[in-house]
Amino acid sequence: MKTRIITGLWAGAIFITVIALGGNAFVSLMGILALIGLSEFTLMRQHKLLAFPFLVTALLVAFPFLLLLLETQVVTDELPFSIEQWLVLGLVLLLFWTVVTKNRFTYEDASFYFVSAVYLVVGFSSFALVRLSEDGLSKVLLILFMIWATDSGAYFTGKAFGKAKLWPSISPNKTIEGAIGGIVSAIVLGIIFVWIDPILPMIEVVILAIVVAVVGQLGDLVQSAYKRQYGVKDSGHLLPGHGGILDRFDSMIAVFTVIWVFNLL
């Protein structure tokens, strides 16, 4: 517990500081976290980090964040390919590698790397784009506080009242009562936040809180599902007492993806 608290304090201080700075510092952090997440996926699958598939996929992941760092649409327009074309090129290279290795690197492996790349790029770049938008700091803080309120509310409500299992085959400790408590906690936190900093109408923040709470808990279940598939307790060991980057950002990846793709802010 002591290790968990100490890690939470220093990691949280760094994270909040970079969020406050915004701009290139935050985009760079998101790119670094996405690459660390890719390394965690790769190691969970028991593949080597310096092998061709990982290096190709790392380039796929890094490229969109490089474009964000350049901070101009002109640069993107002048490139001979779009981000979508870049991702497709990476997929083709991964598929070619199945031939070069005589199917020791399989179609399933290629799919694993490509899906991992899209998951990480969309999730962390959406996080960055929300921060770079107008009133980005307030928006990011609102969403993060809702996510944290959901986690805390679900935990304590589940402990106190939880009986009906939510999804026992994936996460045996989660309960329906806890999930509802998480949603209620997110709504209450959202109302308090916009009462202090009225960046959204009250009805919109209630709807947003429900979306954040539901999607965040689903993102957590996704993380539990693939860890169970690979037989690991934590995605990594970068954060002592907390696991890896994927362990800490599972809900955020899902929430910011949905918020940015569907323009909910």
Automatic annotation (TrEMBL):
* Membrane topology category: Multi-pass membrane protein
Which reaction is recorded as catalysed by this protein?
A: a 1,2-diacyl-sn-glycero-3-phosphate + CTP + H(+) = a CDP-1,2-diacyl-sn-glycerol + diphosphate
Q: Where in the cell is it found?
A: Cell membrane
- Give the EC number(s) listed in the UniProt record: 2.7.7.41
State the source organism's domain of life. Answer: Bacteria
Q: Under the GO molecular function aspect, what terms does this record hold?
A: phosphatidate cytidylyltransferase activity
Instruction: Tell me the pathway.
Output: Phospholipid metabolism; CDP-diacylglycerol biosynthesis; CDP-diacylglycerol from sn-glycerol 3-phosphate: step 3/3; Lipid metabolism
GO CC annotations? plasma membrane
User: Which GO BP terms, alphabetically?
Assistant: CDP-diacylglycerol biosynthetic process
Which key words tag this protein in UniProt?
Answer: Cell membrane, Lipid biosynthesis, Lipid metabolism, Membrane, Nucleotidyltransferase, Phospholipid biosynthesis, Phospholipid metabolism, Transferase, Transmembrane, Transmembrane helix
Membrane-crossing residues?
12-38, 50-70, 82-100, 112-130, 136-157, 178-196, 202-222
Primary enzyme class: transferase
Q: Which family, according to UniProt?
A: Belongs to the CDS family.
What is this protein called in UniProt? Phosphatidate cytidylyltransferase
